[in-house]
UniProtKB/TrEMBL annotation:
Protein's UniProt name: Cation-transporting P-type ATPase N-terminal domain-containing protein
Keyword ATP-binding (UniProt): yes
Assigned keywords, A-Z: ATP-binding, Cell membrane, Membrane, Nucleotide-binding, Translocase, Transmembrane, Transmembrane helix
An example Gene Ontology biological process: intracellular sodium ion homeostasis
A single MF term (Gene Ontology): P-type sodium:potassium-exchanging transporter activity
Major subcellular site: membrane
Domain of life of the source: Eukaryota
NCBIfam families per record: ATPase_P-type
Entry membrane topology: Multi-pass membrane protein
Length: 1135
């Protein structure tokens, strides 16, 4: 018992943590704190104020209340809820207080007036702190250190650091400021796009409710609710406001986890169950969900006045948790900034300890500051944040085009890491188009067509109720037909009733729809349904796994039950005209669930009817179930029983309430007592035709694919074999193999190996789950309930698993157990009960046709079929791969090649080969346009053939990328750029590298004078022109780099940008744009005058072209070696 309690507690804890992680406004701690204060206030006899805990008033139950403002707000809310008495009022008092008619509700004019006076039923969203947001955009990331550059350039613009106003420094300050604004603009645009996607998802979530207006049940937007409205709720609905419950079915349950964090659903009541308003079960709170039953309530609080609205005000300002990709980008920024700061310190120390003392005229303080800022601008690839935003946005757009809607851009990248997929069966792996294929009594099997023929043959009149003289087999089949018709909540859409049966639309779930179609298919039902009145019902739920209905004869046919079922279903002494004292009960559910409650079965071949359920007949039932299940059919059993509700009615009348949980308790107790089996039906739900390829694609991508279903184990196993989830025909392991590993022998096709032998596991790797290929397993919910952590270790090592007969809590546990073993889990679901697992999963996937609860809980919405999942994984991996290519393209020129001119200038004393202005132009303009084209790249090879990314080891930026970008491509580009810089100076001034190195400002005036060049002209014209030559060279070399970096393994001859498979003509548009920017910078007179640029001779526009080709050829040679010698040193360090 203690162990069970601990398990339930741990599940609640997990649920609470996942709720808080997934929802910024979910506040279990805040709700519980508020409730405690209300209870303490009641006990103290006060109407408000902060209760003292012991002697220390400051001993608060939550760190949340840590400011005077929050404490005052808590006192205010405590005052309100401690005096609230809505839960204590009777129904008549509620109607009187809110002036609401119990049958007609509010009139439309009155509702309109209240709406106009009190406003919409909406929560005030936390208003964005635009000042804080703008501050984050303009000072976050690389911008923080760029601001230092702006300030430094402004300081160096005017005296005293500059003898005369230096317009170039002012222009540089303005340019860097423009770069900051550009980066901030892209960050804001990214947030705006994410908010827009979230808005579109919220628009898809149903936001309507049913209310009584002018005596009619109408559907209105939830925002249009007013206080006093009478709201009707049913299974799956979200509560639209705080309601006082007036009517509730006996099985109504609410999921309050969004408020309390507790996993157990709360039963509903129509009377007060606690003095504390927050704990009373006759109050339904806004934002909670109906997970069972139906009810009617009056709106007592709406919008910001509700509990959710008040907690929303108390919990504003929580910091969202950083996503994986955000952490990766932050890590990259920190590395770059750390290297930049280290470089600045090295140069500063060198200047203080050496340069300033030995060469005082070479670099004064102003020149040092400008040089340091040049180093900052050189080493920081300012274009990276912009290009990352564009990459994620483009991939998200591609996903939308493939009917995949991610809630946030971070989900895009997380998909590439998924290595475990847990999928529903019904509606996901199957078409959810169920039909009955087999019918059986324990002594007779048939098909729907044969049933129809036998009924027509054996009944005197198929359009009337059965008569005592009818054939026994036909009468038995008619009973089974009646059970499928009455123990059913599905209905035909009235608008389609004139259509043929197969074309009619059914309102209800797939199982009930199949039973309803069967009932109408085998015989006319026009005389059956009106002859019965449903008195009570316990709907199907995931815990009971059965549905029960209680019926009595209608006034027109009071003895219909005796006519159909004989007097043995009723008390022999019962002579009531309407049979109200005893009622007929129908129960449908899984055979293995209902069999323990059965004592007899209806014989279709013996006219005596009910027969004792002996062990032999129970074995026959099991045989039928297993035979059908092995064929992939879902098996339902239909039973009949009786219910005498007198005791429950008596107790209810004493309590003065019309409904009570006593009805459900007594109905369950009596209805499940000594049931008689009417028959079995086999329901076929054909697998989706594309699901086999989907599973194969997911497995090829390195993701294990599991089925989690509530169906019978054999049915789930048969479907798993049909769809390829079980890849072999051999029988899968069961829980017995887990308990006794010695059973894992070749008797069922496996090699003899102990599953606790670590040597048979895949190669262990931190952050990647271990499993054995080709192993399959079937577990049931009862198996999961008794498993130990050690047994979970064994289970998680299987490659193919079917979890059958599972509850929502067990589905949640499956997710968390795999996560604890390095699993990155994606879960699919569409129902209310799937919400805990969807929230706990790394990627929750909901179908757009699913419940609003599932859509809210999920991270990803599928607008089409489940076959979009592999494409989503592919695009997630493509996003990460393209981000790496973007960084690999930007680092060589935007960081490495720009920092070396500064180092050569400082430590070798040669002129600066690239000015700060030209560095900024390269980073933010000439590189940005081709880089944007990289975002459009298609996959180089089948990304689904790779293993999932190990997020603990495989980072966005790695040492391999640094090595490729800096030491190979970057160093090559640095050499060519500086070579052409000094080559130009040698050609036009006669002064080359050997003449300028180690000069530290002491230029060879004799050589310059021999060519008629003064020092002023050399520094003011020729050096500036040579810097432009270096700049043009760098721009052109990047053309070769982008054509090379777009392929990590393949040669440009194998994957050129022209052929259809890898076509990307945007590259050439980006190259053209960078060329035009280079021409603009070097040829525009205004820019030449202010930023000290000059025209570049045509010769130096052409010379870098073969060098760019050299980069392509050199990198292609590297790729060739990697392909031919995959185990070589070069292959091991390849990115």
């Amino acid at each position: 018992m203690t162990h069970d309690k601990e398990n339930r507690k741990s599940l609640a804890l997990v649920r609470t943590q996942t709720m808080e992680r997934a929802q910024g406004n979910a506040a279990p701690i805040e709700f519980r704190t508020l409730s405690i204060h209300v209870t303490e206030t009641h006990r103290s006899g006060k109407n408000g104020g902060m209760p003292a805990y012991g002697k220390e008033r400051d001993a608060k139950p939550s760190r949340f209340w840590k400011s005077k403002k929050n404490e005052d707000e808590l006192v205010t809310e405590t005052d309100f809820f401690s005096t609230a008495d809505f839960h204590k009022l009777s129904e008549s008092e509620i109607n009187l207080r809110f002036n609401s008619d119990p049958t007609r509700g509010l009139t439309q004019p009155e509702a309109g007036r209240r709406l106009k006076v009190n406003g919409l039923n909406t929560l005030d969203s936390p208003k964005p702190n635009y000042v804080k947001m703008i501050f984050g955009y303009t000072f976050g990331g690389f911008c923080s250190i760029l601001w230092v550059g702006v300030i430094t350039f402004l300081i160096c613009w005017q005296p005293p650091l500059s003898p005369t106003p230096n317009v170039t420094n002012l222009a540089l300050a303005i340019l860097v400021l423009f770069v900051i604004i550009l980066q901030a603009g892209f960050s804001a645009f990214q947030d705006f796009s994410t908010a827009k996607v979230m808005s579109s998802i919220l628009d898809m979530i149903p936001a309507d409710c049913h209310v009584i207006r002018d005596g009619q049940l109408v559907k209105i937007p939830a925002s249009g609710l007013v206080v006093g409205d009478r709201v009707h709720l049913s299974l799956g609905n979200k509560v639209p406001a705080d309601l006082r419950l007036l009517q509730a079915s006996s099985d109504t349950r609410f999921d309050r986890a969004v408020l309390t964090g507790e996993s157990e659903a709360i039963e509903a009541s129509t009377t007060a169950t606690d003095d504390n308003f927050l704990e009373s079960k006759n109050i339904a709170f806004m934002g909670t969900h109906v997970v069972q039953g139906s009810c009617v309530g009056v709106v007592i609080l709406k919008g910001n006045d509700t509990l959710m609205g008040r907690i929303n005000k108390l919990t504003t300002g929580r910091k969202p948790k950083k996503t994986i990709i955000q952490r990766e980008i932050t890590r990259f920024i920190q590395i770059i900034i750390s290297l930049t700061v280290a470089l600045i310190l090295i140069i500063t120390i060198a200047w203080l300890a050496w340069l300033h003392r030995v060469y005082p005229d070479f670099m004064n303080l102003a020149t040092l500051l400008v040089t340091l800022m040049g180093c900052v601008i050189a080493f920081i690839p300012e274009g990276v944040p912009i290009c990352i935003s564009l990459t994620l946005l483009m991939i998200a757009r591609r996903m939308s085009e493939n009917n995949i809607l991610p809630k946030s851009l971070s989900t895009v990248e997380t998909l590439g890491c998924v290595n475990v997929i847990c999928s529903d069966k019904t509606g996901t792996l199957t078409e959810n188009k169920m039909h009955i294929s087999n019918v059986a009594f324990l002594d007779y099997e048939s098909t729907p067509s044969e049933v129809a023929a036998n009924i027509a043959k054996g009944l005197q009149n198929v359009n009337q109720l059965p008569q005592p003289g009818d054939d026994h087999l036909s009468l038995s089949l008619r009973q089974l037909q009646l059970a499928t018709l009455l123990c059913n909540n599905a209905k035909f859409d009235p608008e389609t009733m004139k259509l043929p049966l197969a074309e009619r639309r059914v309102l209800g779930d797939a199982t009930d729809s199949a039973l309803l179609r069967f009932a109408h298919q085998v015989s006319d039902t026009s005389a059956l349904a009106p002859s019965f009145e449903r008195t009570f019902e316990i709907p199907f739920n995931s815990r009971n796994k059965w549905m029960m209905t209680a019926h009595q004869g209608s006034r027109a046919n009071p003895q219909v039950i005796k006519t159909l079922f004989g007097s043995n279903i009723m008390d022999a002494n019962n002579t009531a005209a309407n049979e109200k004292d005893d009622m007929l009960v129908f129960v449908k559910g899984a055979p293995d669930i209902l069999l323990p409650y059965c004592s007899s079965f209806w014989s279709a071949t013996t006219k005596d009817g009910p027969q004792p359920l002996t062990p032999e007949w129970a074995a026959e039932l099991t045989r039928i179930q297993q035979t059908w299940s092995r064929g992939g059919k879902r098996v339902l059993m239909l039973c009949k029983g009786r219910y005498s509700p007198y005791l429950a009615q008596h107790n209810l009348s004493m309590a003065g309430s019309s409904t009570s949980n006593a009805i459900q308790e007594e109905l369950t107790r009596q209805g499940l007592q000594e049931l008689c089996i009417l028959g079995l039906v086999g329901i076929m739900d054909p697998p989706r035709p594309e699901i086999k390829d989907t599973i194969r694609a997911c497995r090829g991508a390195g993701a294990r694919f599991f089925m989690v279903t509530g169906d019978f184990g054999l049915t789930a196993t048969a479907i798993a074999k049909q769809i390829g989830l079980f890849s072999t025909e051999r029988e899968p392991h069961t829980y017995e193999n887990i308990m006794d590993p010695t059973l894992n022998a070749s008797s069922n096709g496996y090699e003899k190996t102990h599953f606790d032998d670590a040597s048979s596991l895949q190669q262990a790797e931190v952050g990647r789950p271990r499993f054995r290929e080709g192993t399959s397993l079937v577990l049931t919910g009862s198996d999961l309930a008794r498993m130990s952590p050690g047994e979970w270790d064994i289970v998680c090592a299987y490659e193919e698993i079917v979890f059958a007969r599972t509850s929502p809590e067990q589905k949640l546990r499956i997710v968390t157990e795999f996560q604890h073993r390095d699993g990155v889990v994606a879960v699919t679901g569409d129902g209310v009960n799937d919400a805990p697992a969807l929230k706990a999963a790394d990627v929750g996937v909901a179908i757009v046709s699913g419940s609003d609860v599932a859509i809210e809980a999920a991270d990803l919405i599928l607008l089409g079929g489940f076959d979009a999942i592999p494409e989503a994984i592919r695009l997630g991996r493509l996003a990460f791969q393209n981000l790496q290519k973007v960084i690999g393209y930007l680092l060589p020129a935007g960081s490495w090649s720009e920092v070396w001119p500064v180092l050569i200038n400082v430590f070798l004393g040669a002129p600066l080969s690239l000015s700060s202005f030209l560095m900024v132009i390269v980073c933010c303009f000439t590189d940005a346009f081709p880089c944007t084209a990289l975002v459009m790249e298609q996959e180089e090879f089948d990304l689904l053939s790779l293993k999932p990314r190990n997020s603990k080891k495989e980072h966005l930026i790695t040492l391999k990328i640094y090595a490729q970008s800096y030491f190979f491509i970057g160093s090559t580009m640095t050499f060519f750029c500086n070579m052409f810089f000094f080559l130009y100076l040698k050609e036009f001034t006669g002064v080359g590298f050997s003449d300028l190195v180690f000069t530290f400002g002491n230029l060879p005036e004799e050589k310059l004078a021999a060519r008629g060049i003064s020092l002023e002209k050399f520094n003011g014209y020729y050096v500036n022109t040579a810097q432009c030559v270096c700049f043009v060279t760098l721009v052109i070399l990047q053309w070769g780099n982008i054509l090379s970096v777009r392929n990590r393994r393949m040669s440009i001859l194998q994957a050129d940008p022209f052929r259809k498979q890898r076509r990307n003509l945007w590259l050439f548009l980006g190259i053209l744009a960078s060329f035009l920017v280079a021409v603009l910078v070097t040829e525009t007179p205004g820019i030449q005058e202010i930023m000290l640029t000059n025209s570049v001779p045509i010769k130096y526009w052409l010379l870098p072209l073969p060098c760019a080709l050299f980069i392509i050829i050199a990198d292609d040679m590297r790729k060739l070696i990697v392909r031919v010698f995959p185990k070589s040193f070069l292959a091991r360090i390849a990115w």
